[in-house]
Amino acid sequence: MAQPTFSTHLGMVDILPGEVEQWHTLERIIHEEAKKFNFEEIRTPILEQTELIARGVGQLTDIVSKEMFAFERGEDQYVLRPECTAPVARAYVEHHLDQRGGTQNLYYIGPMFRAEKPQKGRQRQFHQFGAEIIGAQDPAADVDIIALMMSIYDRIGIRNTTLKINSVGDPESRKIYTKALKDYLRPHLAELSEISQKRFENNPLRILDSKEQEDQPIVDNAPVITDFLTDETADHYKRVKALLRELNISFVEDPHLVRGLDYYTRTAFELISPDLGAQDALGGGGRYDLLIEEIGGQPTPAVGFAAGIERLLIACEELDIKLAEEDMLDVYIVTLGEKARSWAIKHLPRLREAGLSASMDYIGRSIKAQMKDADRENARHVIIVGENELSEGKFVLRDMKASEEVALPFDDILEELSA
Ligand code: AMP
């Protein structure tokens, strides 16, 4: 086949017919589960102010320092959103959503953009669903967020997962811990990988989730943040764990879990799947009590998760989970001749009004080619219309699966098919 003139950009993927049906099912499940948990959907623009993401996600993160699709237009700095927590927090502040009273339980589904090196499970345009509870400090909110995330995977049948949790502390405990960590790492600095050496000064916590082989023995023996938590934060973490146990949500504690986004405080979690390969995180999240103040709102505690749709679909494929049945067409009208075609055009609306999906040939193919087309479209029934049928007022209705035919007036066909 000839090389096409245009193709998608690197790491950007078309979702084609045949695939998109799975997305519909998944989106329906997300909407249904979110409703059960009393979350409301929010849709924010794809483009945000670059400064919001820089401040919200954190200057030193990979996302902001290396992976933003950002551009200028006139006076304004635009970025294609790399995640949706900062945009949701912006919308919360901008529209004074706190004045609606209570906590704001919000969820979203949509595309995100990060200029990462594409590989399996890692794209430059990918999709996330996620949820946020804004305005609650209580561990019950952390646990309800995790429960919502887990219930979506459970509904789909992805159950062979590991939920990792940690507490990344509050600013006070993080300050003391960062010092202890740096004191520990300093004598090993030369043995660390290049990337970890770079992170030592400005972002030493990220060294903990290094994937580099040479860092592992050093990281394994590093002090852990949970030994440095303030009493209040330690108590919060204890209560989160107790509630998870009460809900029978199993988890493992991972003191090296820090996650790539700066805004997390206290609870951090990640859901891992052995069915994903190297990019094994289905989703993750945590508490971000400082974000809303950071972007100009009143101090407001919040907790949320974000999960990747493409990775979820990879897991489904590995586990042989079918999210969507093959699409079927209820009726295909096969026509012979011009008169039959105009009859078909006029009768398609009646089939569709009766709630049936219906189509016909538009390009004057032979009967044989039309039957083949009906097969390709997975038609349940075919109505065959030619000169004779038109003059007799009876049409052949063929049940494609049973290979049976009857000749009936159109009204009777309609009745039979809508029964
Ligand atoms: P994060 O916003 O980095 O916490 O990511 C949350 C989830 O989004 C991850 O666990 C992945 O499932 C998914 N994700 C993040 N980045 C990508 C990417 N570049 N391509 C595909 N999925 C991604």
UniProtKB/TrEMBL annotation:
Keyword Metal-binding tagged: no
Domain Aminoacyl-transfer RNA synthetases class-II family profile: 26-315
Cellular localization per UniProt: Cytoplasm
UniProt-annotated binding residues for L-histidine: E83, C84, T85, R114, Q128, E132, R259, Y263, Y264
PROSITE patterns cross-referenced by the UniProt entry: AA_TRNA_LIGASE_II (PS50862)
Catalysed transformations (reactions): tRNA(His) + L-histidine + ATP = L-histidyl-tRNA(His) + AMP + diphosphate + H(+)
Stated name of the protein: Histidine--tRNA ligase
